[in-house]
Design brief:
Elements: E1 7-12, H1 15-27, E2 33-37, E3 43-45, E4 48-50, H2 52-61, H3 79-86, H4 97-111, H5 116-126, E5 132-135, E6 142-147, E7 150-153, H6 154-160, E8 167-173, H7 182-188, E9 193-198, H8 203-212, H9 216-222, E10 227-230, E11 233-234, E12 237-238, H10 243-249, H11 256-262, E13 269-273, E14 287-290, H12 297-312
Parallel strand pairs: 1-2, 1-9, 2-5, 9-10, 10-13, 13-14
Antiparallel strand pairs: 3-4, 6-7, 6-8, 11-12
Helix pairs in contact: 1-2, 1-12
Bound molecules: guanosine-5'-diphosphate.
Guanosine-5'-diphosphate (GDP) is lined by residues 12-17, 19, 53, 200-202, 206, 230-232, 234, 238-241, 243, 292-294.
């Protein structure tokens, strides 16, 4: 990135995406990162508005993430959940006491008419996060999972049924009429943006909903900065979650190559794991191989550096 190209945009889902977003946040000047998050996983539960991917990013970037569980907040307590279960209430979606405060406060402000983007901007500032964190849209977009046994709400599929049903198609209800958050179009049109990174998130349920919001795909195509995607598949397998299983069910070859092809109309460079170097085959874009497994903080920072350095050598 040259010195005038000071901004980096990342498209992210939850856990996989947030790992690289944290690496980027730690190696870049603190206010140069903007993360655009998927809100297709958002849902209403106990009358509360829950935004799992935005919250994962808020907790991860502020160092409040629960590393033992791999989701939710550090040092969480579960009094609410135990009390709900004792009442015979629904306990399939676990809400920690601290996490609950995020949902209560978000819901209160949404009901008062504030857009989600301004609420999240306040939350991230109060958490001391210097990066910008943007929901893809302020309008509701809801991922619906079509399965062999009929349609499912996303969290029913993902959490209650632990991704067991066979996925036949995905739909992003509300996407056709949703508008991108205004800040999303502003940042993608900012000439100072040097790189757009598609994080190693699930392409079908974390990145596709973002791309389904009218205007975002075009803004990415028109953006002068190179768009770089990092593979969420390592050695032919997902690190976590249903990405590989979903690829097989959707009739795609399971592997890093199929993810690259999925993004082929958008990306200028693909970053795959060195484990896949021999099996990737010919792809329609340049590919760089590096270690992409992020176990430690150093791994997250190193992959972020590799992404920035690789993108610096690519032109649109
Ligand atoms: P979710 O919204 O919480 O499911 O999270 P994402 O969609 O952002 O991330 C899920 C994807 O992250 C899965 O496909 C994982 O394979 C991938 N992933 C998780 N950890 C890593 C990692 O350390 N390296 C890479 N390359 N991918 C990862």
């Amino acid at each position: 990135m040259s010195s005038e190209l000071t901004k980096v945009v990342a498209l992210s889902g939850g856990i996989g995406g947030a790992k690289l977003a944290l690496g980027l946040y730690r190696i870049l000047p603190s206010d140069s990162l903007t993360v655009i998050a998927n809100t297709g996983d958002d849902f209403e539960h106990f009358g509360l508005s829950i935004s799992p991917d935005l919250d994962t990013l808020l907790y991860t970037l502020s160092g409040k993430d629960n590393q033992e569980l791999g989701w939710g907040r550090r040092g969480e307590t579960w009094t609410f959940m135990a009390a709900i279960a004792a009442l015979g209430g629904e306990s399939w979606f676990r809400l920690g006491d601290g996490d609950l405060a995020t949902h209560v406060e978000r819901t209160r402000r949404l009901r008062a008419g504030e857009p989600l983007s301004s609420i999240i901007d306040d939350f991230r500032r109060n958490f001391g996060i210097a990066a910008s964190l943007l929901p893809m849209s302020n309008d509701p977009v809801r991922t619906k999972v079509q399965t062999a046994d009929g349609p499912l709400e996303f969290q029913d599929y993902f959490v209650r049924q632990r991704c067991a049903p066979v996925v036949t198609a995905l739909r992003f209800a509300g996407a056709e009429t949703a508008l991108p958050s205004p800040e999303v179009l502003t940042i993608l049109g900012d000439p100072r943006v040097g790189i757009v990174v598609i994080c190693p998130s699930n392409p079908f349920i974390s990145i596709d909903p973002i791309l389904a919001v009218p205007g975002i795909r075009t803004a990415l195509r028109d953006c002068p900065a190179p768009v770089v995607a990092v593979s969420p598949i390592i050695g032919g397998k997902a690190v976590k979650g249903p990405t590989a299983k979903m690829m097989a069910e959707l009739g795609l070859p399971v592997g890093a190559a199929a993810v690259a092809r999925h993004y082929s109309d958008l990306i200028d460079l693909y970053i795959a794991d060195e484990e896949d170097a021999c099996s990737l085959g010919e792809l329609p874009m340049p590919v760089i191989f590096t270690r992409t497994l992020m176990q430690s903080i150093e791994d997250r920072e190193q992959l972020a550096r590799d992404v920035i350095n690789a993108a610096a050598r690519v032109r649109r």
